[in-house]
Protein: non-specific serine/threonine protein kinase
Amino acid sequence: MKKIVENYQILGVIGNPQESRVFLVEDIGSKQKFALKALPMDFFNSEREYKSFSQEFERVVQFRSPNIVKYHKLIGKYTESFLLTEYVEGINLRGYVENQIHPFPDLLHVALQIMKGIQYLHVSKILHQNLKASNILLDDNLNVKLSDFYFSKLFNRWRKRRGYTSVESVRYFSPEQVKEKRVDERSDIYSLGVVLFYLFSRVMPIRGTSVAEIMHKHLRMNVVEVPSTINPQVPADISRVVMKMLEKKPRKRFSSLSELILDLTRMQQRQQQKQANI
Structure:
């Protein structure tokens, strides 16, 4: 791997998933740090597809939300391309959950930011399609940003072509994704339900050791545990919200997050008021 890409100096590796590598880079002129994601060499089917992606990518570069990673530009050519994005110094959600037990107000704070990030994408007519704990980043002040949200559809196609589907990704698949059916916002809401179940309870709602086993359970197995029975800090109202997100049939899930975010924001405000009165 070369040490300089365009005018960015590679400082080190900050991620090495099987699909692609992520590097910490520094702008040679400004010294500002960024993340640089190297896409697989066969990610695009043709130069024409690469150019089309590049043009569409310009819209995503304009996105502004405190809860999504900022995309800066696409670098390279269709057989060797890189995504330059904001660098978030901190940990991902998996590290946050596994490091220690957190108080419920902190968990609610994190959950609301994840939901706001998803809502922003949906309002912008973008589906995430690859929401999982490793794609949710937190800094030291518990500011949350979603990553890997624009090109997930192409990554899913690339995985299928290579015959590669990771157990980690499948844990968060909606039943529609398992069936390879058309997806909409409710598919992301199912994946969000998996994320929130894990955040509030520290266990996954669907467990298994193989891709086939987990896929089967997403389709056939109803989740019987609820977060509030695993973690007594979690109110029953939160458990009901999460379990509705995890409904197998899309029509039984929430169709949008707007009202839900308002309801949980009110809950957060009541919790903060209660703390202030102690």
Q: What stands out?
A: The chain has a mean pLDDT of 90. Residues 104-123 form the longest helix (20 residues). The longest strand covers residues 8-15. The chain has two domains: 4-86, 91-277.
